[in-house]
Design goal:
Layout: H1 7-15, E1 23-26, H2 28-35, E2 43-46, H3 50-61, E3 64-68, E4 73-78, E5 82-88, E6 90-93, E7 102-105, H4 108-113, E8 123-125, E9 134-135, H5 140-145, E10 148-149, H6 156-159, H7 162-174, E11 177-178, H8 180-191, H9 200-212, H10 216-226, H11 228-232, H12 240-255, H13 262-270, H14 276-285, H15 290-309, H16 316-323, H17 329-337, H18 341-348, H19 359-364, H20 371-385, H21 392-404
Parallel strand pairs: 2-5, 10-11
Antiparallel strand pairs: 1-2, 1-8, 3-4, 4-5, 6-7, 8-9
Helix pairs in contact: 1-3, 7-9, 7-10, 9-13, 10-12, 12-13, 12-17, 13-15, 14-15, 15-17, 16-18, 16-20, 20-21
The structure holds adenosine-5'-triphosphate (ATP).
């Protein structure tokens, strides 16, 4: 197999040799090279002492090595923020489903056997003579050609149920299909309740990755078909409506350049039937950052109210007063639920309406620092939104008038 050698791989190849014979490129990069897709991750597995190899590689690259002794892994940092991940080839043992495994050094074949799917369980030799030779003990290449996602053994999902989310992610990304037996194993694992054993943080990480992919709306329906939604929380709904809503939210987010992370929109779409308390509890279990959790919670709880409040013909100032406090997720979610003109007006222009004057102008007019400053500015903005003010002079005149009242 021809591998194009990025500088870090060139360096890796230079330092491979006694005593670092068994050095391999592993994981998703191998898969993506075979698929002809770009992948900028470089994951290297070493039979022997991965950390020692990482130190040598760091010296060769003029970078530094961050070892993780406990796991036999290291990150080599070099250049302008580039990195290479190095692992000591290892085998894993799972004490219980969903728990993290204990690990021991092992051969590359054993290391590949601990991986999730055959398409991710291939390695490429980096040692000079064998450079580019594919190590493919589980026929990953055949599965890649057949567009099949297949586990390496029947216990795989029970060892680590997050692999089911990963399978859905790869199905969507590559247009592959989970192989029939693998899907039966996934369903059995879900029905046995093992997904419920996962920590909230692990579920969060998987959902986030899945929802950030392009076309993730399809993955939402797949979550529902497999019953993963109910396995995570009995009132999550990964159905066609959720997928449609999510796709629409993403489109609106991009159209209005809001930059709300897709995963936040996806979580809100999935959790839209949860009562506010249930949603807050669930989001707390996922251990999201507080600000993110608040945004998702407000989309679910406030979004539908905004739809009701903004039906009819509200004034621009009314639109802003209800939409702004929960900007941006709740008004965006409301717009996803109902295509209301006032919300288009809000995102299209009203949210950017600012006064030309500020508190310092009011101070110059003689208004001392006090709550009254905020009140006057709020009233001026209300008037400006409703088209009653135009430019700095008219704002100053209105401010004087308000101060005299
Ligand atoms: P992506 O392009 O999504 O990052 P990737 O294959 O590079 O795909 P990573 O999550 O970076 O995915 O993981 C790197 C490799 O580690 C995978 O290719 C796979 O071999 C292995 N791996 C990752 N997560 C698991 C898991 N939960 N169980 C088993 N093997 C895993």
């Amino acid at each position: 197999m021809e591998i194009s050698l990025a500088p870090e791989l060139e360096a890796a190849v230079r330092v491979v040799g006694e005593p670092y014979e068994g050095v391999y490129l592993v994981g998703g990069t191998v898969r993506d090279i075979l698929l002809g897709r770009p992948n900028f991750d470089v994951d290297i597995a070493v039979e022997g002492d991965g950390i020692e190899f990482a130190h040598v590689l760091a010296a060769e690259l003029g970078g530094s090595c961050l070892p993780h002794g406990q796991f036999g892994t290291a990150v080599v940092l070099y250049g302008e923020g580039q990195h290479v991940d190095v692992v000591t080839a290892r085998r894993e043992r799972y004490a219980s489903p969903g728990a993290l495994p204990t690990v021991e050094p092992a051969t590359i074949k054993e290391d590949l056997f601990r991986r999730d799917f055959t398409i991710n369980a291939m390695a490429v030799w980096l040692k000079a003579d064998d450079r580019g030779r594919l190590v493919d003990p589980f026929d990953g290449r055949t599965d890649l050609e057949a567009a099949a996602i297949r586990v390496l053994h029947d216990q795989s999902f029970i060892d680590d149920p997050t692999r089911i989310f990963r399978a859905v992610r790869y199905e969507n990304r590559y247009g592959f299909c989970i192989d029939e037996h693998t899907e039966a194993l996934a369903r059995a694992c879900i029905e046995a309740g093992h997904v419920g054993d996962l920590s909230g943080a692990r579920v969060r990480d998987e959902l986030t990755l899945l929802l950030e992919e392009a076309d993730a709306a399809r993955s939402i329906e797949r979550l529902g078909e497999l019953g993963l939604d109910k396995a995570i929380h009995p009132r999550l709904a990964a159905d066609e409506d959720a997928a449609t809503l999510f796709a629409r939210l993403r489109e609106l987010d991009a159209g209005y350049e809001l930059d709300v992370p897709s995963w936040r929109l996806g979580l809100a779409a999935l959790a839209r039937h949860l009562a506010p308390d249930e949603a807050s509890d669930w989001l707390a279990r996922l251990k999201l950052r507080r600000r993110d959790a608040q945004h998702v919670a407000s989309a679910i709880a406030v979004g539908p109210h905004l739809v009701e409040q903004l039906r009819g013909d509200p004034s621009p100032a009314e639109i802003v007063s209800v939409a702004e406090p929960d900007y941006p997720d709740a008004p965006l979610f409301a717009l996803g639920l109902a295509d209301l003109a006032p919300l288009h007006a809000y995102f299209g222009s009203l949210r950017d309406v600012r006064l030309d004057i500020d508190g310092s102008d009011l101070a110059e007019l003689g208004l001392e620092e006090s709550p009254r400053v905020g009140e006057v500015l709020a009233e001026l903005r209300r008037r400006k939104l409703n088209g009653e003010l135009d430019g700095r002079e008219s704002e100053l005149a209105a401010a004087r008038e308000l101060m005299e009242q």
